[in-house]
Design a protein that fits this description.
Elements lengths: L7 H4 L1 H18 L4 H18 L10 H22 L16 H20 L2 H12 L4 H8 L3 H28 L1
Helix pairs in contact: 2-3, 2-4, 3-4, 4-7, 6-8, 7-8
Length: 178
């Protein structure tokens, strides 16, 4: 008989799926997986989790961190395949519709401004900024997810936040001028 995880309920597939589905979906979408492919990509991440679940070591990372790494690999593989067949296209984040039309316009505009800002960042800073500001992870968790030193995470995040303040200031100064 194999060894049991210390908390079998936390590794139960259905529990893991319910707890992490939305996060994996958002992560794959941010990494550029086309909307039409998102459901399949999420499905493939959780199939990989189920297939490799016996390899999971809770001493090395949390389940969420491990799923994040699996999702990142899935997104990269899909990106490479799209490039190979010349189907890669850039898609904006489309926020879920708010209840009122004016709110929807504001929400879409904020999402577009954020997406334009994120495109200005180098990949390393963007990933850290998204995980911290958008997903709410802390520095040590991000360091574990990305396999970098926590100081590197803090340096990248500080730089990205400075660029964000500058970008937003420029954006709103330009709007005032119109």
């Amino acid at each position: 008989m194999g060894t049991q995880p210390t908390d079998p309920v936390s590794l139960d597939f259905e529990t893991v799926y319910r707890r992490h589905l939305v996060f994996i979906w958002r992560s794959l979408r941010r990494w550029g997986v086309p909307e039409a492919d998102l459901e399949d990509a999420v499905h493939d991440v959780f199939l990989t989790y189920r297939r490799k679940q016996v390899d999971y070591d809770p001493a090395r990372s949390s389940v969420g961190t491990w799923l994040y790494m699996l999702a990142r690999g899935e997104a990269r593989n899909r990106y490479r395949r799209r490039c190979t067949v010349r189907r890669h296209r850039d898609e904006l984040l489309v926020p879920s519709p708010p209840e009122d039309p004016e709110g929807r316009v504001g929400q879409i505009e904020r999402a577009q401004v954020m997406e334009r800002f994120l495109r200005t960042l180098p990949r390393e800073r963007r990933e850290v900024f998204e995980l911290s500001v958008i997903e709410g992870f802390r520095g040590p968790e991000i360091a574990g997810m990305l396999g970098v030193n926590p100081n590197t995470v803090h340096t990248r995040l500080r730089a990205a936040r400075g660029l964000f303040r500058s970008y937003m200031s420029d954006h709103f100064d330009a709007k005032k001028g119109n």
